[in-house]
What does this fold into?
Amino acid sequence: MVFVSFGAGCAKGGTAPLGSDGSTPPIDAATSDSATNDGATHDGAMNDGAVNDGATPDGGGCTTASDCDDGLVCDGEEACDPSAPGANAAGCVTSAPPVCNDGIACTVDSCSEAAGGCTTSLSDSACDDGRFCNGVEHCTATGCAAGTPPSCDDGIGCTTGRCDAPSDVCVQTGSDAFCTDSVACNGVERCDASGATSGTGCVAGTPVDCDDGVACTADSCTGSGTCVHVGTDADGDGYIAAGCGAGNDCNDGVACTADSCTGSGTCVHVGTDADGDGYIAAGCGAGNDCNDSAAAVHPGATEVCDGLDNNCNGVVDDGPTMQCALGSAPRACTTSCGSAGTRACNAACALGSCYGSEVCNGCDDDGVGGPDNGFLCVQGTTTSCTTACGTAGTHACTASCSGYTTCAAPSEICGNGCDDNANGVTDEGCGPSNDTCGGAIALRMTGMGTTVSGTTVGSTNQSGCGGGGDVYYSFTLTQREVVYLDTETASYDTEIAIASGCSGNIGCNDDSCFGLRSQLVRVLDPGTYYAVVSGFGGTTGTFTLRFQHLPTGNGTPIVLSHPATGGTRTGTTSGTGTLAETCTSASGPEQMYYFTTCSYTGGAFSASTCTGTSYDTVLQFRDATSGTNTCNDDSCGLQSSISGTVSSGAGLRAVYVDGFSGAGSYTLTYTMP
It folds into this structure.
């Protein structure tokens, strides 16, 4: 809180207070700060010229107090009095600064230009007496006010709280008097507030124990906490049982005893023998007959299998040959099948065979109905059946006894195109005899060629040409020849190869002008070779292999192209001839030109050396497909020409330029289908 006040001598716009001598008091340099007064006179630092420039209106000094007013409150009141002691050059004088003191000890007083005069703020710290137990003091506009003492109630019913001035804390004192319920027999209650935050804080006492350990007395606690023991009168005859304090009633309350009192006043209790076996019932004095209603049961009796403890030794059916008690629960065991089972106690107190629940294991677990009864089949057994191929086979019971495996023959039946042994492969092990190189079938070499039929079904792949099974055919050349192979009519996607041995292919072909069928031609030197038929991508099937071969003569064979309107070839023969001609006894060297055809190729063929040839020539045309040989000598002088028709069909054809008796240069003109 801030209070603003003006002293009687500093009312704004009034007359400055006079000194004790009636003069204007001098300016006290200590009350004016350097921002408003330099400690001497108001020389212009107080007035910047806009309000008061230090000169009278006519150049002679101030004329009114407003000429001297610096607009500040806290440095005193300015007045115009040129004749007053201490007046500055402008004739202005300043009174003493206002005194700010409201006389309240706990307030802080000061002069504020912003507030326009004296201000006051409250300070609670000025009132603090440093004592906890009388509360926290605070400052008011009229002075210090006392605080409110702290509450020391901890909320526990059996404690009393007080404020301890030396230690400045609340102290709790417990009292058992707050907890007593004035009932002596339930023990002494006490105050225990440890750990509690609310409630009574009381804990119960320990009740008085009046049990004297005597079964025939009634024990109780009186209101004063004294124990009382009263003997019982079970039969209500007004007499306390003997043995209960001073009681002398001989009835011990036990039905199996005969009670009597002797002449000397002594009680006698004799146990009864209800079954007449000479043994007193157990529980009747020193009696030890464990079943007084059965004459055959008593100590020393012979144990028999009847579910009873005949000899009263505490064990039922424990005769020397007995394994169990009649009627007892079955015992856990392991069956002969290795499964969990139980053994029941039979009428002779002997344990029976161990049986359990039937499980699928090929064994009789429950001793009823044979192995795996209740399942579809007996695990591990096999029975006869008919395969999907119609052949005889067997199938086995599954590991779960839920049915049989697929019916399978013991071995594959070759040639029926069916998977008899149910291994996912058809006719395996039924491969043809020429499945390997060692079993290769020899091709007939007479004439210009031959065809053979075969199959790759059931064969294995050994050549590496194609991924399907392959079969081998062998042939032996005694001279250099052009060899031709095709599988034009095969039932599947074939591949064919020529190999010089059981490994290492000379050539391999997949698809040709037959589409997915194969065609292969190679020039081979004398030797033994193998024609290999395989299948693309693992396929197998039946096929017809066409094998053709034509001798090359002594020259290097040249492939004859298929020009649209005919063609011309030039060359020179040299060396020694090797071919025998059919139309003359030519002995000169020869040059072979050969070509292959597809199944759809056929038409006219002609060849001539009639022009551009320098020596006596002989022409020969050999068609390996038809097996024909066409020959001409001297159709145009010493030169030759031939013509004819090549029938449709795949195969190998060749034309030979030969010399009748010598060699020379030639020009061969030809047409071909």
Observations:
- The longest strand covers residues 542-551.
- The radius of gyration is 71 Å.
- Confidence is low (pLDDT under 50) at residues 1-58.
